[in-house]
Amino acid sequence: MKKVLIAIDYNPTSEKVVTDGYKLAKSLGAEVCLIHVITNLQYYGAQYPAFMGFESMSLSYDPKIHDEMKNIAKDYIATVASHVGDQGLKTHVAEGDTAKAILEYSTEWGADLIVMGTHSHSAFEKLLIGTVANAVLEKTTIPVHMIPVNPEKV
């Protein structure tokens, strides 16, 4: 395994995903890239506490702020990369359907492994909306390492 792609979102549980995923990648001697996908912008008004040096956004969704949201996403992923402290760490911000964007970039970048967290959704939520993790697992052609994260335990 030479390239590991770590998918992160704005949830504070991403700290565990980055930490564990980075350790795994380095134990394999692999190059690492963090990916964040800008998806449905209405989710970006959610408030989370500060984590990994990134202060949560205090914006409400407004279709006119798309460019600002892209800048915030770029700042977020740069802050997370800085927190890791690896000068060789790559980052990528994509837009669109999260699972599809992760899969497309994993192919484009030549990833050998995708690392992502599994949020603790209820069975009912999974039935109604599915999860990004499930969508990636259904369509991937490369291995996926899932890191279980439970917001109550972070």
UniProtKB/TrEMBL annotation:
Family matches, as CDD domains: USP-like (cd00293)
Location(s), subcellular: Cytoplasm
Main location: cytoplasm
Keyword terms: Cytoplasm
Parts of the chain that traverse the membrane: none
Residue ranges occupied by any UspA domain in the UniProt entry: 1-148
GO cellular component: cytoplasm
UniProt cross-references to SUPFAM superfamilies, sorted A to Z: Adenine nucleotide alpha hydrolases-like
Keyword tRNA processing listed: no
InterPro entries from the UniProt entry: Rossmann-like_a/b/a_fold, Universal_stress_UspA, UspA
Family, per entry: Belongs to the universal stress protein A family.
Protein name: Universal stress protein
